[in-house]
Amino acid sequence: MKVRVLITLKNGVLDPQGKAIEGALHGLGFEGAENVRQGKLIELDIKDASSAAEAEEKAKAMCDKLLANPVMESYLIEVMEAA
How does it assemble (predicted)? Predict the structure, then answer.
């Protein structure tokens, strides 16, 4: 199964990179861009999952143990078609 994990900083956690992006956008004339937050996208194949639910459970375990910092970050898992 192909899985996408979107990891972002939790609300209330300072995002200096998001602020820098927002400032750069304003400098380029995009004044309407506000509250910019950045994150990371991780795509992976989980070969030993027999169902979408199992792939999601394995991806959640990966996030909790390595991919995301649960104190500062939240994540969203999307399971896609079989790889």
Answer: Part of the FGAM synthase complex composed of 1 PurL, 1 PurQ and 2 PurS subunits.
pLDDT at 83 over 70: no
Q: Would you say the pTM of this structure is higher than 0.70?
A: yes
Calpha distance 31→25 (Å, rounded): 7
Instruction: Tell whether domain 2-79 is in CATH 3.30.1280.10.
Output: yes
